[in-house]
Design brief:
Elements lengths: L18 H5 L4 H8 L7 H4 L13 E6 L6 H4 E2 L5 H5 L15 E2 L5 E2 L7 H5 L3 E8 L7 H10 L4 H4 L5 H7 L11 E3 L14 E3 L13 H12 L4 H18 L17 H15 L5 E5 L15 H20 L6 E6 L20 E7 L7 E2 L19 E2 H11 L6 H4 L13
Parallel strand pairs: 1-8, 1-9, 5-11, 5-12, 6-7, 6-8
Antiparallel strand pairs: 2-4, 3-4, 5-10, 9-10
Length: about 425
């Protein structure tokens, strides 16, 4: 059994077609409206462009949202604290050295066996883990907590019509190149974090992204239909075609990592492989976002051999394969993965965990201060818990703001995270 060591040295810290006939033929209406994201900036975003700064060598930012409330105490196990095994007599992963025990990281924290694939990038200094991280808001609603994370602000009243935090980040930084497309969600729809951006599109697979089957006659029809117009409509049509042509000129080499470490055969694995292909294509896309859901385990958690273990295995093998696939290109990438909140510290009567607060964040990349578990560990003692939850000691925006500043060149952080003063947490350099 683990000893009760709670002094872990964590850092605080077509021309002949009418408009009606043309639009009735397919997806142009939807696509043109979607690609309107590539026209002029919306007034909401445009109003925040003070302090714009260019940094051509900044990293590609990859944001992975682990939707559903991932249990960080099952991923990064604080085995050095006896209270874990009191709170979770059935669910806690045994300490290193035990049968089916965790994989030791630093003498206090360890990885779940199902997340073993993260050990190599951690030891290589490419992966940092942040414990006891989140947003100080009392909600236990997935939807409210997701909004908080995606807008980078607390409470519905603070969201309003404000753009998402990534949209604001794009607004305060100059484009790295000449591309109209700066951000891509590797999804069917844009996440709220990109809401309000004029430079973002949802493209689930660039190899099949098209307008009306790539028919040249239809494209000429689209251009001719809007040529006589002025302003927004014509710009949308032209940018639709220019964006499509840009994507078609790009070779998306979706592959397995050269080391033979395959991506998991899952939707998440497919998204990561496509994300790597976007980055290696060097087409001036600066931000890529993707989701990995399925973390809401109120019953039968199964961190060793159940649903949680399957999720952790997919996450760990996916991120490890992503790092190996990129190879040297990882040096110009920062990936951050987080959930909307964590889980309760104590297991429930159904062999699961209810919604909690303090969680775990993963940061992967070539300029990450990896090989360490960051944050200020609050302990799991009864007096230290926050209404039964792991207390939050690092605001998630501290980590995101540091990445935005150090790896994306956004000095106007007050516009990215309004009404918030970030603290240095030392996760990236």
């Amino acid at each position: 059994m683990a000893t009760n060591r709670t002094d872990h040295p964590l850092q605080a810290a077509g021309a002949g077609l009418s408009r009606r006939e043309f639009l009735s033929r397919g997806a142009v209406a939807t696509t043109a409206l979607t690609v309107s994201a590539c026209s002029t900036r919306s007034s909401a975003v445009r109003s925040m462009t003070r302090g714009v700064e260019q940094r051509p060598q900044r990293d590609v930012l990859v944001v992975v949202f682990l939707r559903g409330g991932m249990d960080g105490l099952s991923l990064c196990v604080p085995y050095g604290e006896d209270a874990l095994y009191t709170l979770r007599p059935e669910l806690a992963i045994p300490p290193p050295g035990s049968s089916r025990g965790a994989v030791d990281l630093d003498g206090f924290f360890a990885l779940a066996p199902a997340a073993r694939a993260l050990y190599a990038p951690f030891r290589a200094g490419e992966l940092a883990i942040v414990q006891a991280v989140g947003l100080q808001h009392p909600t236990r609603s997935h939807f409210d907590a997701m909004r908080n994370m995606e807008y980078g602000s607390l409470g519905r009243a603070a969201h309003g019509s404000r753009p998402g935090w990534i949209a604001r980040l794009l607004a305060v930084t100059e484009p790295r190149g000449d591309s109209m497309l700066r951000a891509v969600a590797v999804e069917r729809f844009l996440p709220a974090a990109l809401a309000g951006s004029s430079d973002a599109l949802a493209i689930s697979d660039p190899r099949t992204f098209t307008v009306l089957g790539r028919d040249r006659e239809d494209r000429r029809a689209l251009a001719a239909m809007y040529d006589h117009e002025r302003g927004f409509g014509r710009d949308v049509a032209r940018n639709t075609l220019r964006t499509l042509e840009q994507i078609e000129r790009t070779r998306f080499d979706v592959r397995e990592p050269p080391t033979g470490e395959a991506y998991p055969d899952t939707e998440f694995g497919r998204k990561l492989a496509l994300t790597s292909a976007w980055i290696r294509a060097e087409n001036d896309v600066e931000v890529l976002t993707l989701d990995y859901g399925g973390w809401d385990h109120h019953r039968n958690l199964g961190a060793q051999d159940g649903m949680m273990a399957m999720q952790l295995d997919g996450l760990a093998r996916g991120l490890s394969a992503f790092a190996r696939d990129l190879g040297p290109d990882l040096g110009r990438v920062t990936l951050v993965a987080f959930s909307e909140f964590g889980r309760r510290a104590a297991e429930n009567a159904s062999g699961g965990l209810d919604h909690g607060h303090g969680g775990t964040m993963l940061v992967l990349g070539g300029h990450v201060k990896g090989g360490r578990v960051h944050g200020c560990w609050p302990t799991l003692g009864a007096d230290a818990l926050d209404d039964g939850d792991l207390a939050i000691t690092t605001d998630a925006r501290d980590v995101l703001a540091e990445i935005a500043l150090e790896r994306f060149g956004a000095s106007a952080l007050g516009n990215v995270f309004p009404s918030f003063e970030p603290r240095t947490c030392g996760v990236v350099s």
